[in-house]
Amino acid sequence: MTDADAAPRLPEERLRDWPGRFRHAELMVHLHGSRSVDNLADSLLAGLAAGRDEDGALLELMESGEFDVAELVLVEAPAVSPRLRARLSEELESRRAARASQLISTVRNLVEQAAAAGIPFDDDTADLEAHARQSWPAVDEILTGRRRELLECIAERGEKLKSRTEDSPLGTRVRVAVKSLIEAGRLTVAERTLREAEPGLTIPEIQPPLLPWRWTESAGEVLSWHIDPSRACPPEFSAWRAVDEASQQLLYSTDGLGGGGQEAARIFAAALEAFLGGDREPPIVHAIEGGHLTTITLFRDAPLAQFHPTPSVDLV
User: Fold this and answer.
1) pLDDT for res 152
2) CA distance 72 to 81
């Protein structure tokens, strides 16, 4: 006989009619919701120790997302304060809608993770949305299980790609980039790079990631550190300094835009064209209502040409 078998059992049919049940959120979920409690006696004692009244239990149910049980309490619990009953009755649908939005956002993130890893994922949320109206904890448990399964699949496939990377004839730069893609969960790009990469490969996916933005100061303040090296700035800012003349000229011209005018726009457009690798004539700038319009050359040369059907974009 186990401890669970020896534990005292409470008659559930009597608890369902007990007026005091409305003071115990966990007990209410067991009696009227979608989850079970292993030991009702422990649950009841925990509720008594917490000393909650009907208002406190109702708030706990609403905050946790046990909406069907909370709705039952709103209808049937006579001791709930009228003010709280009125407020939560109005909030019930908005809270359900908020959880539905959270569900869609969570599933979207999982779908994006799965797509990046090349792993099939069921994105049908119809049943989950209906379930979320009743009990968010039940839905969250399902999502947690799906997330765990997805991460296990990503990890397993990632380990196989890491082994292939070690055995591949790729150069050091591409090898490091592929490993970085695997760590980021972008397994489809990593696999394609392993399959197609050459030593001189320069596709955007394997370029080193940009440094994370770490400054609490405004973008204008950080720009001023570039423009005037004598300004006080954090020592680690040295890693952010422009690496070549084209980069520095783009920063200077960006600062110059603050004064406005067609000449400032022309200088900025020319600096941007040069920064983008253009060995081309400076773009022509046209004055329009509220600003200036020009055309910047992009995607003209390999390997970027594959990303856009035309080689240029308008810039206002």
Assistant:
1) 93
2) 15
Strand partners, 294: 315
Residue 16 lies in a domain: yes
In a domain, 178, yes or no: yes
Compute and round to an integer the Cα radius of gyration of the chain.
30
Strands of 312-315's sheet, edge to edge? 286-288, 291-297, 312-315
- Expressed as residue numbers, the domain containing 155 is 101-206
Distance between CA atoms of residues 124 and 264, nearest Å: 51
Determine the pLDDT at residue 150: 92
The tokens for 12 are 């559930």
The reported pLDDT for the residue numbered 6 is: 47
Contact between 181 and 190 under an 8 Å Cβ cutoff? The reply is yes
| Distance from C-alpha of 290 to C-alpha of 251, rounded to nearest angstrom | 23
**Residue 4, pLDDT score:** 47
Same domain, yes or no: 201 and 107 = yes
In a domain? residue 93: no
**pLDDT beneath 70: ranges in the chain:** 1-25, 28-52, 197-211, 278-280, 299-316
Distance between CA atoms of residues 110 and 303, nearest Å: 30
d(CA 241, CA 235): 11
Amino acid occupying residue 126: A
- For position 8, what pLDDT does the model report? 45
The number of folded domains in the chain is 3
23 contacts 53 by C-beta, under 8 angstroms? yes
What does the alpha-carbon distance between residue 284 and residue 269 come to, in Å, rounded to a whole number? 8
Helix (H, G, I), strand (E, B) or coil at 218: coil
User: What amino acid is encoded at 191 in this protein?
Assistant: E
Q: Answer for the pair 25, 47: CB distance below 8 angstroms, yes or no.
A: yes
CA angle 175, 179, 184 (to 5 degrees): 145
One domain, residues 136 and 170: yes
The SS3 call for residue 287 is: strand
DSSP notation for 289-316: TTEEEEEEE-S-STTGGGG-SSSEEEE-
